[in-house]
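User: Second chain of the day. Same drill as before.
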Amino acid sequence: MPTAVITGANSGIGNALTKILISEKYEVYACDINISPFLKSFDAYHVTLDVTDQSSVASLKGRLGDHPLDVLFNVAGVMPPKSSDALETITSSLLVHTYSANAFGPLLLTQALLPNLLASQSPRVYNVSSRVGSIADNSSGGAYAYRSSKAALNAISKSMAVDLKEKGVVVLLLHPGIVKMGLDPTSHELEAAVEPEVAAKDLWEVCKSKGMEGSGRFWHRTGEELPW
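Assistant: Same format as last time:
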């Protein structure tokens, strides 16, 4: 049975991906800073994980031990309110908090679990980014902490893909599109927004369709490649 670690599993895309991978017979470690009764009802290992806390990351690593890890889904992230993430209002503490969750967290969790990934016959790392992190696609400005933290995640993921290519690890960057979830309450009002289950299904299809040729590249859930 293949094994997957999914962060941000308590809600939204992470929760929907957890359901999908369980249905596809993965042994899933469903990780989140909060574990709800709903998540506890899933047939998975439930792990309280704060990706910004290295002792919490070490605890997950200890729980996995030397067990091979086939899929690491770095989904957990934060999005500051737009009113706090503007040129006039941004603070160093908000920047640090956002980068810690959105960029440093996926990097350091992947680092901690790298021995497990390398023990797999077909290791894959999927980092959920955002089109907002595309510099070429930025026509709206603002969102200083969120936008730049996702751009940082993109740069980190590209380096990761280069460094791990010879070790056979596929690293994909994924944009889920506009999704109705708590991370951005205003998304529910947008016509283009989809439910987390729709985004997760599409993302998983993209993940399954890409091999090493797609590693280190930025993919929309539709399969379109996005610019940096």
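The CA atoms of residues 95 and 164 lie 28 Å apart.

User: Great, on to the next one.
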